[in-house]
Amino acid sequence: MSTERPERPEQLEPHGHAEGAVGAAAGDRSARRAVTVFPVLVLAAGAVGLLFPGGFTGWGESVPYLLGVVMFCMGITMTPQDFRGVAARPWAVALGLGAHYVIMPGLGWAIAHLLQLPPQLAAGVILVGCAPSGTASNVVTYLARGDVALSVSVATVSTLVAPLVTPPLTLLLAGEYLPVDTGSMVTDILKTVLLPVLAGLGVRLLAGRYVQRALPVLPWLSAVTIGVIVTVVVAGSADAIKSAALLVFVAVVLHNGLGLALGYGAGRLTGLGEPASRAMAFEVGMQNSGLAASLATAHFSPLAALPAAVFSVWHNISGALAAAWLSRRDR
To answer: What range does the record give for the signal peptide (predicted)?
Structure first.
């Protein structure tokens, strides 16, 4: 899930030009704060939902609107340069997009069968796998000294095509567990993801000078909003967490870890090079878990949203650790 996007990929590229040094230093400090504070915030939010579930009764209907706020913030951070990056490297972006929507959904289905998950949890794990990439992957790619431009391009395209890809994939892989209304799911993704992103992009284009002043606040607004989403999701299934928490955690760790490894491997096997392979790892292994939680709550049950809530915490922790290891290996 999103916490912050690097302002300009070429500024934050670890091997970029000297004029980007100041911007890179500031981006590095901000990015490190994001990947450090965000998991702690989400953990605290989950604890609140678990300890005081009665205080959030009836809040489930607010989750799509909260997600819309997060996606609007993502749209505001976008620039036309993000889309030029797609046009400049269509093969690499297409490879990243294909790997994302093949590896993670397939892993979700395989893990659900391997662990013999109950139908609600199985559908939730698969739905996480079918979600688009989370933009926190951009920050983690930067910290790992990976190809930030490729990361931003893949994350952008995976979000824009989600209404066309996520519902049919969910039906194909999760339909054996629970009924899936693809038409309704398409509508929900359009309303909670695509329209807010486009609205944010429009605001950035029309009022860029004013938006620039607000950009430092947006990551924290997104982080707090995601925290509220996690609180609501956890509160809705607090009773079930006590019996299913360990099973869900094992499923999430396997899903995320194998996604990171296979994403990196896909980049190396196709000859993309080390920096691009690192970007592939995080674009495949890190998901828009907020969208998965919202869709699971709306179309399945609060229990089905539990894997997304756990994934939201874990993929930021594992991503930050992997990035630190890769960066230290370079040095």
So the answer is: none
